[in-house]
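Friendly challenge for the regulars: who can give me the structure tokens for this chain first? No prize, just bragging rights.
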Amino acid sequence: MKKKIFFSALILFVVFLNSTILIVSTVILRDKLSAVRDKCLAEHYVIASSLIRDVLSSVFLNFYNRKLLI
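First reply, four minutes later:
Bragging rights claimed.
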């Protein structure tokens, strides 16, 4: 009888411990993914805006140089 109670308590403890670890790790993972996603979006914005600025400046520079030659 004592062994039965011991093993049932042990199983309940292990299940509770594993479920707690799973919940905590899931919450931390979601938080880290959100932070990394925000960081990547910020870097994407910087790269895209720099690329657009470079392309537009080269287009306007070419247009201005052609205007001077004509």
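The first helix runs from residue 2 to 69. The helical segments are 2-69. Your move, everyone else.
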